[in-house]
Amino acid sequence: MRPTILFFLLLLLIILPSLLYLNYSIIQTSEEAITLMPEIDNNVVRGPVVMPQLKNSTIKAELGQSSWKLLHTMMARFPEHPTQDEKEALRNFIYLFSRLYPCGECAQEFQAILAKHPPQVSSREAASQWACAVHNIVNKRLQKEMFDCGKIADKYKCGC
Ligand SMILES: *[C@@H]1O[C@H](CO)[C@@H](O)[C@H](O)[C@H]1NC(C)=O
Ligand SMILES: *[C@@H]1O[C@H](CO)[C@@H](O)[C@H](O)[C@H]1NC(C)=O
């Protein structure tokens, strides 16, 4: 047999099918990565509230103040121009925070607010304004004083 014919036979019988198979398995894997992973993540990240009711109102109020401080300070220090990864990290954190917040009934309220006011994670400014607006929704229900969101950057300093 001439070497060229042998080469083409080899190509047809061995190399081409294995290339095709390799290509197929790469496509399979990337499709799985695209379709399966976000579903798994979403089930965890967007799941229901974990903790039961928090009955002691003193502990509840202290927890609330500390948590708002944490949230507003986090937004004040969030990147002005976040990467896609940083945006997703903040979004997922907020949803997980709403699941794991130690006061169950507060977490329920927070999840209901999130459903109407999804986290804004495109920039430090957007995230800060979102947290301020959400805080004011809770302030209103508790008949507390509303905060002027134009002054949020003065109240919660970046410290940078
Ligand atoms: C491999 O898959 C791509 C699509 O992802 C396709 O365009 C290409 O033609 C395939 N290559 C072979 C050798 O089948
Ligand atoms: C609520 O918690 C505070 C702080 O731990 C405690 O001093 C208080 O006695 C608790 N109140 C009730 C009704 O258990």
UniProtKB/TrEMBL annotation:
Annotated signal sequence range: 1-21
An MF annotation (GO) of this entry: flavin adenine dinucleotide binding
Cofactor(s) annotated in UniProt: FAD
EC supergroup of this enzyme: oxidoreductase
Membrane-spanning ranges: none
One Gene Ontology cellular component annotation held by this UniProt entry: mitochondrion
Catalytic activity, as annotated: 2 R'C(R)SH + O2 = R'C(R)S-S(R)CR' + H2O2
Enzyme Commission number, as recorded: 1.8.3.2
Keywords, comma-separated and alphabetical: Disulfide bond, FAD, Flavoprotein, Oxidoreductase, Signal
Ranges of residues in domain ERV/ALR sulfhydryl oxidase: 56-156
Highest taxon, organism lineage: Eukaryota
Keyword Transcription recorded: no
InterPro entries: ALR/ERV, ERV/ALR_sulphydryl_oxid_sf, ERV/ALR_sulphydryl_oxidase
SUPFAM superfamilies documented for this protein: FAD-dependent thiol oxidase
Pfam family, one: Evr1_Alr
Protein name: Sulfhydryl oxidase
